[in-house]
Amino acid sequence: MSRAVILLSGGLDSATTAAIAKSEGVELFALTLDYGQRHRIEIEAAKKIAEHIGIANHIIMPIDVRLFAGSSLTGDAEVPKDVPCEQIGQQIPNTYVPARNTVFLALALAYAESIEADRIYIGISNVDYSGYPDCRPEFLQAFNMLANLATKTGAISVKAPLMYLSKKDTILRGLELGVDFSLTFTCYDPLPTNKSCGRCEACQLRSNAFREAGMIDPV
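RESULT FIELD:
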């Protein structure tokens, strides 16, 4: 059985991506990054998802928050709320974490090479997202080129099975694979009770997708 590394954040996208990877018959090794994000409750969600899906090994790796200054997810700036849905994705919001996916994938690449995995899964999408530059197909293509040049085997590929799926289609695909979305957490600015705020862009994209799928969000 081939091995794969999954970047597991605890959100519905990474949970669905993990389920897709599992359905493809690989032995999954999860990597979750603790980078001082204000929504650290997602790390607990990642633990539950890893257990639910049946991941062979789950590493939670701390990263110094000072690497990611300037983002409202790692600092004191206010997370944007109540942005009209039609405006989401038109500009890069302050929730963008500088070079986050590049850093995360580099760590996943090192992990993959060390355990002789031949692929990495990441739950990025170019549809129904906040406009982050490191979620684009061009970014994925460029990183795959780097992965081939930077590793001894030159044979580790990065997969993004949700790249062209809407959030609604992601949810439907996850349900087909038995994902328990009540275990996932998406909000960027949780309430003191660790409940979702319901107003940030991540919450709006999620709730709209469940509504479009004719469902009530289990969280």
